[in-house]
Specification:
single chain, alpha+beta, conserved putative lor/sdh protein from methanococcus maripaludis s2 fold, Elongation Factor Tu (Ef-tu), domain 3, OB fold (Dihydrolipoamide Acetyltransferase, E2P), 4 domains, 6-stranded antiparallel barrel, 4-stranded antiparallel sheet, elongated
């Protein structure tokens, strides 16, 4: 009985070992299944994406240069105002009193100047007759000049008081719409250190602008005059259009990320766009229509050496030999120009010179390379400007072993990836 217990596990181990040997041997010898995609003809466009904030084309903050209590406010949120229109009034009582005080000071200075003038005239007569000294004459002349200067100073003080009184009446500096009101009637405003903001007026809301923050890696592709499309959260199904107006040179660093402000002009005739909205911006850098294009992943695919068809030169055909020699020389130049050895260095050199290579399946189930010249790329597709490929031709973009595909289908896997247990 004990001997039987020992035999059964041994049999199980032998069976598992045989199954493992069969499984891995069948996996290693499985046929490779390639993933294909057709060469297409269509449009390719390169864009730069960013986010920004909508604002009016011209926005003016209206403040006050004098302190006092607001006695009247004639404009509210969304009020349309004209240039020169009175929108607020500061209590002028104190300012009017300052004007009266300045007037009295001017009158006092004028009276003093008149008296100095009369004294100087009498002293001059006596000096001409030899009855007054030179010192008396100079003192009278100096007093007259000083009093005349005091009159001018008093006149300036009166003018300043009148200007401050005029500043108590706050007028709209431009035609526009009041988008912000920061004060109420009875509130005291102090303009001792800086002018407080009372109103914010937008010039014309039918002409808006977007201040987009573009990353430093993309700013080199942005130019004035490029077309822009953007969306806002308020209208997710509607696309708005604009034009790049200005690229500001001042960088802005936020969390070690350098951005540049790009100003975009936006028409807003239907008044749907409001100041402060967040816009998701797409700037059109370049676009080509109806071009031959391939998936970019096809240009990056590199098969194993045993999957590539080995081309042999024809001994009796000098043209084939010359073509093969040129191909080898080209490959060598690419490897040397890539700054590194192997296929990776060659691929870098080819990309730098707008060259690429795609793979097609030959008659003997081996892959054949086709060299192409690339153009515009949007990251997903790349334009083919030269090369012996045609629209509708199947090119390889990846591979999947047949055993892995069968296993993925058996266990419900996706993407052709092997499910390991």
């Amino acid at each position: 009985m004990r001997k039987k217990k020992i035999v059964i596990p041994a049999i199980i181990i032998v069976v598992l070992a045989a199954f493992s040997f069969w499984y891995f041997s069948s996996s290693s010898s499985s046929e490779v299944t390639y993933r294909f995609e057709k060469v297409q003809r269509g449009d390719i466009q390169v864009t730069v994406t960013a986010t920004g904030t909508l604002s009016a084309d011209t926005t003016v903050q209206v403040g006050t240069q004098v302190s006092g209590i607001l006695s009247k406010i004639n404009a509210d949120f969304n009020s349309k105002v004209k240039k020169g229109e009175v929108i607020a009034q500061i209590d002028p009582t104190v300012l009017q009193a300052n004007v009266h005080d300045a007037e009295a000071t001017l009158q006092r200075a004028q009276a003093q100047a008149n008296n100095s003038k009369r004294v100087f005239e009498r002293t001059k007569i006596l000096f001409d007759k030899g009855l007054a000294s030179q010192q008396d004459y100079d003192a009278a002349l100096s007093a007259q000049e000083s009093d005349q200067a005091q009159v001018k100073s008093s006149q300036v003080g009166l003018e300043r008081a009148r200007i401050n009184l005029a500043y108590a009446t706050i007028r709209a500096p431009i035609d526009g719409v009041v988008i912000s009101r920061a004060v109420d009637v009875g509130q005291t405003v102090a303009a001792s250190l800086s002018a407080p903001t009372l109103f914010t007026i937008a010039n014309d809301l039918t002409k808006m602008q977007v201040q987009a923050n573009v990353d430093e890696a993309d700013i080199g592709n942005v130019q004035v005059g490029q077309e822009v499309t953007f969306t806002v959260d308020a209208y997710p199904d509607q696309t708005f259009h604009g034009v790049v107006k200005q690229i500001r040179l001042l960088p802005q660093t936020v969390q070690n990320v350098v951005n540049y402000t790009v100003m975009i002009d936006v028409p807003n005739k239907d008044m749907k766009l409001l100041p402060g909205m967040t816009a998701t911006v797409t700037i059109l850098v370049s676009k080509k229509e109806s071009v031959l294009k391939v998936p970019t992943i096809a240009l990056r695919y590199q098969p194993l050496p045993d999957q590539i068809e080995q081309r042999k030169d024809s001994a009796g055909n000098s043209q084939d030999s010359a073509r093969a020699a040129r191909r080898r020389a080209f490959m060598q130049r690419m490897q040397e120009g890539g700054g590194g050895g192997g296929m990776e260095g060659m691929q870098r050199a080819m990309q730098a010179r707008n060259f690429g290579r795609v793979w097609v399946l030959g008659k003997d189930k081996k892959l054949q390379s086709v060299f192409v010249r690339t153009g515009l790329s949007d990251g997903t597709y790349t334009e083919i400007t030269q090369g012996k490929i045609q629209e509708g031709e199947q090119i390889v973009i990846g591979q999947l072993s047949s055993s892995a595909a069968a296993q993925a289908n058996s266990f419900g896997g996706r993407g052709g990836m092997r499910m390991r247990f």
